[in-house]
Amino acid sequence: MPPRSCLLLVSLLLLGACAAPARRERPPSPMTDFLASPIRETRHAGGDDLLTAGLGLAGLRGAPVAFADPERPTPEELRRRAIQVSWKGIADLGPLGGYGTLYGSTATVTGREFSAFARLPGAHSPHRVLVQVPDAFDASARCLVVTASSGSRGIYGAIALAGAAGLPRGCAVAYTDKGTGSGYFDPATRSGVQLDGTRAAAGTALLEFEPAADVPSDAGIAVKHAHSGDNPEADWGRHLLQAARFGLAMLDRAHPDQAPFTPANTRIVAIGLSNGGGAVLRAAGIDDGLLDAAIALAPNIATPGRGRALYDYATEAALWLPCALLDPRFDPVPMAREADGSAPAAGRARCASLQAHGLPGSAAPAATALAQLRAAGWSDAALATAASTTRLDLWRAVAATYASGYLRAPAGPMPCGFGFSGHDAQGRPGVVSEAVRAAWWADASGIPPGAGVLLTAPAATGEDPAWPGLACLRGLWTGTDAPATRLRAAVEATRAALPRRDLPVVVIHGEADGLVPMAFSAEPYVEWLRAHDRTPTWWPIAHGQHFDAFLALPGFGDRYVPLLAYGYAAFDTVLDALRSGGPLRLPPAPQPRARGNGALEAAHLGLR
Hints:
This protein is of the alpha/beta class. The strands form three sheets. A nine-stranded mixed beta sheet has the order 1-2-3-5-4-8-9-12-13, with helices on both faces. It has a two-stranded antiparallel ribbon with strand order 6-7. The chain has a two-stranded antiparallel sheet with strand order 10-11. The protein has helices spanning about 55-60, 75-90, 160-165, 225, 235-255, 275-285, 310-325, 345-355, 365-375, 380-390, 395-405, 435-440, 440-445, 465-480, 480-490, 520-530, 565-580, 600-605; strands spanning about 40-45, 110-120, 125-135, 145-150, 170-175, 190-195, 200, 265-275, 295, 420, 455, 505-510, 535-540.
């Protein structure tokens, strides 16, 4: 196991101390009555493993895992590529980033996986749950880590956080896709994704996601987050707690001679990043004693009466940021300018659109747009990293997908005229190739565009064709008609509840997060907990932003530090305290510093 020596001293300092909760005798949790499929059990050893699918750090960094037959990849090939894609999407694996030497692990961890489709009461669609049980499971200090995928990713979407934290320490790890994921359904071929990741025709196998039979063949690609008919975000907490119960059941199955595994004899730690962090905090709010600790990194969390909901600030940013980023203060910011240093034409067009729709201060539209965002709570640090989100058009993709999910739209046309369509090799809307379709489960992020699927927008002309669709999405938040009222009610259903007083809660967030700004999410959540006599540990991370994977890109690694390092440090300290039975004592928030042009060093992380 690569050393994590820079993380081992964090357990000695005092701040945010809270007593480890006494274990109460509780009846075993209901086991598997929520399953919607048989359980698939696989073993991973001999050139394969649980954490990296046998790729190791070099293989994770390398070229995409190849399929012997691109149109018919095997379950083993799909799993290996899905794990590689998930690692690359979450972690900084670049040569200067220090992963595997300064922090983190890609150790070879052999063991078994147990996967199934599960269902929540009242849900239209099933979702995935998966448990990894290492051969080196520490039966003398029983530990179960439970997590939910970040973003809308598939079932391995949190492996670089939860898997890398728990598996090398002898813990089992339970995962849920929380009702999102990459099990895309193609109405043109009436095909979707089976439990093993391969594709099958509707009616011939149980599929991860299968819309109604009357969906027309030209309806476009159906994506679970957008088209399941559920509001999955409202149930993220229930998804995570269900995964924990599945984890206990699979430990019973893996180690029947040591069963039963219950909350009374097994330490259960929830940890997640971004939407996965939000799921952890949502679970903490409804947990009745299943969890021993909750650790949330960069959580997308809506707090009652405080902060701002993701849909609110995402639709605001989609409209205003392209113009605001033309302000000269953003000239040196990564992705804020074209390769030749010029301002993006889309930004100039957006300023013109804002002026045409009543933006005051027409003599300096960028400065006016910037002032508008600052007045709404955006910090300059968050705006700077939001330039990448803006350049990659993520605001529009997120808003269109979430609007569809909140309004429980069926497969086909989405709110405001958006949709998902396959595309050909030239990027034109059309039927995707069999090879692209076969790789969706491994390659897709759960929110198009990407992996051969386009986000299509309402037809528009002019220099700013994105404006009508974005203005419509914003109107679903600010409007008073029935769809807007329904959408806001759906968002209200996603707000957090207070965790029990004896549950240790650790919240970690980068101060420069431009996708889920700290001022709108984690910070008001922590303030809310403290106002209600809770004692969370709060680590705001200077020089921290949302996407560790971006640190390998020019202009990011020299400015920002990896957030995963702090998640691993918190987990190690929490687990050590739970296993020893002593009090949990985390140090004050680390004080990192940017690494500059050189390689990351332990001192840059500021961990003690």
